[in-house]
Each structure stands twice: as structure tokens, then as C-alpha cells.
Amino acid sequence: MKVLNFGSLNVDYVYQVDHMVMPGETQSSSGMEIFLGGKGFNQSVALVKAGVPVYHAGLIGEDGTAFVEAAKAYGMHTDFIKKIDGRSGHTIIQVDKNGQNCILLHGGSNRAITKEFVDFVMEHFEAGDIILLQNEVSEMPYIIDKAYERGMQIFLNPSPYDAYLDACDMSKVSCFFMNEIEGGLISGGETDPDKIIEKVLEKYPDARIVLTLGGDGSIYADKNERHHQEIFKVETVDTTAAGDTFTGYFIAGIINGTPIKETLRMSALAASITVSRPGATPSIPYMEEVQKML
Could you tell me where the DSSP H helices lie in 136-233? Predict the structure, then answer.
């Protein structure tokens, strides 16, 4: 089984602030750092740190050479990371004194994915392989359709949830990773976690659902079972890659055949380590550290 992450590669500009900037306000930041990130890249790093070999597919701009070097250093397969003219995707991230963040995203090269590039990548994968997707690259409907045609297992993190997703055939998705906001949108406006799960399973009865609830933990559900996992309480420094860590570790558990309850616990612990550290990919722990703490 191969794992393909067809995802974004963003340069993250992270600013430490007292509070999120309000309309009309000018605020000095207490610090600024630059990280390699993007939900796609973060999740690929989480996968390799959790012990899963991953092929990352995506586009970088002229300013994105460091992504290839970093991906190789982490142990990713970089055959499908290609450079194009222009700038890479980037984010402006505010992190407040409580460790909460808000993110402004510019797609850049991530929005230059073409059907031809998708076809080129998909030729190297087959039935039973896993494809992991987020909504930070272009041609999402086409990627999902081609992966489904090839019999791949489609794992989708529908973030950010916008009009691009409305054109996607969600019935082809094998597993959803979503928070309450995304779950509410997919379920048709539900806000209660149980009702979100009920509605999503009603629409997509064969799908697996992983619903993250912030401080209230996470829920796994499918048509046969349901489990709830509490968070591991830590001092929050930066929540930027917490969800991406959870996603990577959960997929690792699925691949390794770990029972769902244990997979949820492992994923929650890995995410708690991530939020206790600054930055995105540097904050994601390796499996050895997670196993020791378990």
C-alpha cells in the first residue's frame, strides 16, 4: 500500500501578538518566525514522523526550493513536488498570548494544479492505495474523481471549507477529518456533535468520520461503532499544526491495524505534544516520543 498526500506547500509567516488584530487596529508583534507549512506539508510530516512512508504531490514557486530539501530530510518521496514560475503559497498567522491562532491564506502555486499534473501523479498509484487531501489546492473535484476511478481510499480534510468543495462528489470519500465548523457545513447546519455525525452518516453511510471538538476531544464514528477521546491537557503554546498531527497519526494507526480506541488516544496525545511547542512542522513529535508517553 502506498500513501499519497496531494496537498499544499505554504510558507508560514507566524506573528506573536497579544490578541488578534481587530478592524482598523495597528498592533506591534512581539515576535515573528518563518516556517515551512501548509496543511498538506504538515500532514505529510506528521505521517513520516508517525512512521508512514508518504509520497507528497504538489507545486512550489521559485521561492519554494527549501520544501524539497526539507521533505527529503524528513524522509518523504519528493518525485511529485514540482517547481513552477511565480510564488509558492503562503500564510500570515497570528498566534495570541493564549496560543490560539488565526490564519490568512494565499494559494499561490497551490492553486496552479492542472488536470495534466493530476493525471501524471495518479499513474503511479493503484487500487487500495491511500490518498490524503485537504482543500488548499486546485482541481479538487478532478483529483477525487481520478482517485476513485483507480480504487484508492480517499481521506479528506475539508479545510478550508469553501465553494471549491461544493463541486466535489463527497460520496466517494472513505474518511472525513473535520472540526465542528466543517462538520456543521457538511451536515447541513447542525451544531451538536452527535447530530453532525448522524447527518453525515445519513448522507454518506459507508464513510468513516473523525470529528475534532477542540477542548472537548474527538469522536470517531462509522455505521458500526463510535468512540470518544478526551484531550491530553497541556499548556498551549501554538495550535497551528494540531489537527494535522492528529490526522497523520490517525492514518498511521489505520495502516498499522491499531484498534480505533488506541488510535484515537495515540492521535490525541501526539496533537497535545504539538500544541505545547511553537511552529508547525518542527512541533510535530516522532512516534518514538509518543509511544514513550503512552
Answer: 140-149, 163-166, 180-187, 193-203
